[in-house]
Specification:
Blueprint: H1 2-15, E1 23-24, H2 32-39, E2 47-54, E3 57-64, H3 71-77, E4 83-85, H4 88-95, E5 112-115, E6 125-128, E7 134-138, H5 140-147, E8 150-151
Parallel strand pairs: 3-5, 5-8
Antiparallel strand pairs: 1-7, 2-3, 2-4, 6-7
Bound molecules: 5'-O-(N-(L-cysteinyl)-sulfamoyl)adenosine.
The site of 5'-O-(N-(L-cysteinyl)-sulfamoyl)adenosine has 20 residues, from helix 2, strand 2 and strand 6.
Length: about 160
Amino acid sequence: MAAGGHERFRERARDLGLEIRSQRFPDGTRTAVDAAAAVGCEVGQIVKSLVFVVDGDPVLALTSGANRVDTRRLAAALGGDAARKADADEVRAATGYAIGGTPPVAHDQPLRTVVDPALLDFDEVWAAAGTPQDVFPVAPDRLVELTGAEVVDVTERG
Ligand code: 5CA
């Protein structure tokens, strides 16, 4: 449920010591392009919080809005055999949030995470705050800290 997603995210973020100054855009921030237009930033500064299934386990790829994940590179980076994108039910089961509102942290369970190095080019990036209407700014270093992520490029090569 969309409204619940934001409250749940706020509470869990507070428990993690992450101060959230989220902004709501009723017209929606469902995609990285939508979110960048709403915020007024570069698409590359938007965090896509993408869930993949690698050898049966959910993993999180925090990816710059300017990039796409290469599933073969993702599997290789994690020492797995095969990676595929999670479906909507799998995303909700793994994170507790819906596609389009999945935040980068504060999930139902800790998820093994990789962070796109391109996000570290920015002092501040914007990510979903639990619903497709809510986003918040955060230092990319904080996302790495909070998720215990590996910073590794698993994106499609241009
Ligand atoms: N709120 C925005 C910007 S922060 C957001 O959440 N973007 S996102 O990229 O993290 O989430 C949308 C992503 O979900 C899309 O990039 C797309 O890869 C994925 N997605 C959309 N529909 C589906 C679907 N049916 N199954 C699997 N993945 C999907």
